[in-house]
């Protein structure tokens, strides 16, 4: 069935208005009309051949938007974003513990759109039809010539609650994972502020997840908060891995030297069940002989991070792979294997050694901008691709941080069938010695990223 009918007939309130901030700075109201025969509204007039639709106005999507316009001024670039305001996940742990104000993390979506000439539409994307090159949203449909998907992650609570969506949502609200920007972070901050002692558990998921060092940084900063506010609490980290990764030595040194009696790190410990009424976790602990025992652990507050998966839009677009539905791409351009006009970037990407980080999403945004601008300007795929680098800082107290950087290179290899392919290989360098110079570097890095994405 036609995507626009299929999805928009589901939307009952068809007289809603959506607001577009265009490159000229004008705000246009696109109003759907419940009396139309088709009951399907177009968000924008038909494309004239150079339209790039970007799904997700986060780290990857906004980088791509700015740089496509910069390199191909004739392109018509439209960003579809469901949030009303940009809030950053990077640096949010410092906000949760009260070290920085909220406006440090937030930006408006309008200034960058006006300055760089792309169009920002606040709406929720509901489906993607590659055959008709159409994106369906809660407010109408839009066609594209090129599509960039940067919608981030979703949670998969099924190993704890099966298909019980209500329990999953209850867990998200009562024990917020705070990997997706917005209410989860604010709720976790409130839980911390109201915490008056006991076990504060942070659980790390199995598999790939958004910002691998973020839970370890959060543990250190919460311990620091307990110490400063004289709270008789323990921060208990449950980690399926045998040591923190990345920056393990730096985190372990901070836990021991700064928070010896506050942080308890439990390796090889995977949460298998959650009882929200009793405030109990069932934890599988594997010992050195690979023998697993089940333990019950009580919590007074918890930051439970479930298994991560790609946004469901990646599967809806038919460009996903595996159970987690990560986007399946061709190295190194982020063009999907299934469709040369569709690109996936950011945390939705799978099959590469890239960590799920804002730094990498920004680098990937630059790569797809080069690729798409080159095509719009009449050339073919760019042969030379500058691979992104990852720079990642983690605060361990008010002023000091540790860091890691990673670079990537393209190597020639063969697939299982013996065909010549190119693979991306990474190499990392960690700085595990905490220092206030790295603490300053954390904020400098963040401000640099914000300038690259939003301008001065
Ligand atoms: C606590 C924490 C700390 C972190 N610290 C760092 C750090 O120090 N350094 C670092 O490099 N990275 C860090 N990260 C990781 C970083 O935040 C992510 O890797 C980055 O945001 C990924 O960019 P993205 O574009 O893929 O996704 P996002 O930035 O999440 O953007 C996705 C956008 O898509 C929108 N969207 C989703 N679905 C729809 C839909 N259906 N319709 C319309 N819009 C939609 C979302 O609202 C969102 O704005 C941290 C993450 C966390 C949680």
TrEMBL record:
Record-level Gene Ontology MF annotations: flavin adenine dinucleotide binding; oxidoreductase activity
Signal peptide location: 1-28
FAD/NAD(P)-binding domain: residues covered: 51-154
UniProt xrefs under PROSITE patterns: TAT (PS51318)
Domain of life per record: Bacteria
Segments forming domain Sulfide dehydrogenase [flavocytochrome c] flavoprotein chain central: 188-288
Name of one Pfam family that matches: FCSD_central
InterPro entries: FAD/NAD-bd_sf, FAD/NAD-binding_dom, FAD/NAD-linked_Rdtase_dimer_sf, FCSD_central, FlavoCytC_S_DH_flav-bd, FlavoCytC_S_DH_flav-bd_sf, SQRD, TAT_signal
Keyword check for Membrane: no
Record key words, sorted: FAD, Flavoprotein, Signal
Flavocytochrome c sulphide dehydrogenase flavin-binding domain ranges (all copies): 389-454
The protein, known as: FAD/NAD(P)-binding domain-containing protein
Organism: Sulfurimonas hongkongensis
């Amino acid at each position: 069935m036609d995507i626009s009918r299929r999805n928009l007939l589901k939307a009952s309130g068809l007289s809603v208005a959506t607001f577009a901030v265009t490159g000229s700075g004008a705000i246009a109201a696109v109003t759907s009309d419940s009396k139309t025969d088709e009951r399907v509204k177009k968000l924008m007039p038909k494309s004239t051949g150079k339209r790039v639709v970007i799904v997700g106005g986060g780290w990857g999507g906004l980088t791509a938007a700015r740089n496509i316009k910069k390199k191909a001024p004739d392109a018509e670039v439209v960003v579809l974003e469901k949030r009303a305001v940009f809030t950053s996940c990077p640096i949010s742990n410092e906000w949760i513990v009260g070290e920085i104000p909220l406006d440090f993390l937030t930006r408006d979506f309008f200034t960058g759109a006006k300055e760089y000439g792309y169009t920002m539409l606040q709406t929720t994307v509901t489906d993607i039809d590659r055959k008709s090159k159409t994106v369906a949203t809660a407010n109408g449909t839009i066609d594209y010539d090129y599509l960039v998907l940067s919608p981030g992650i979703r949670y998969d609570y099924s190993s704890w609650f099966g298909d019980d969506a209500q329990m999953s949502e209850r867990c998200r609200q009562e024990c917020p994972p705070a990997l997706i920007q917005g209410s989860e972070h604010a709720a976790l901050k409130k839980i911390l502020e109201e915490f008056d002692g006991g076990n504060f558990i942070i659980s790390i998921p199995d598999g790939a997840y958004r910002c691998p060092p973020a839970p370890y940084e959060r543990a250190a900063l919460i311990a620091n908060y307990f110490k400063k506010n004289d709270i008789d609490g323990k921060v208990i980290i449950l980690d399926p891995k045998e040591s923190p990764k990345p920056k393990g030595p730096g985190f372990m040194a901070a836990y021991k030297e700064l928070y010896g009696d506050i942080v308890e790190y439990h390796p090889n410990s995977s949460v298998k069940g959650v009882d929200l009424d009793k405030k109990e976790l069932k934890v599988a602990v594997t010992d050195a002989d690979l023998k697993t025992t089940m333990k019950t652990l009580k919590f007074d507050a918890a930051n439970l991070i479930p298994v991560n998966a790609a946004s469901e839009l990646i599967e809806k677009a038919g460009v996903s792979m595996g159970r987690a539905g990560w986007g399946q791409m061709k190295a190194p351009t982020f063009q999907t294997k299934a469709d040369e006009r569709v690109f996936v970037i950011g945390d939705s990407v799978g099959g590469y050694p890239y960590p799920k980080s804002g730094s990498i999403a920004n680098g990937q945004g630059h790569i797809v901008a080069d690729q798409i601008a080159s095509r719009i300007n009449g050339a073919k795929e760019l042969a030379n691709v500058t691979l992104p680098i990852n720079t990642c800082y983690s605060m361990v107290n008010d002023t000091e941080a540790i860091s890691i950087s990673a670079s990537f290179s393209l190597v020639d290899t063969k697939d299982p069938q013996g065909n010549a392919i190119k693979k991306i290989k990474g190499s990392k360098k960690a700085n595990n010695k905490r220092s206030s110079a790295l603490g300053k570097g954390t904020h400098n890095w963040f401000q640099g990223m914000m300038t690259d994405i939003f301008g001065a």
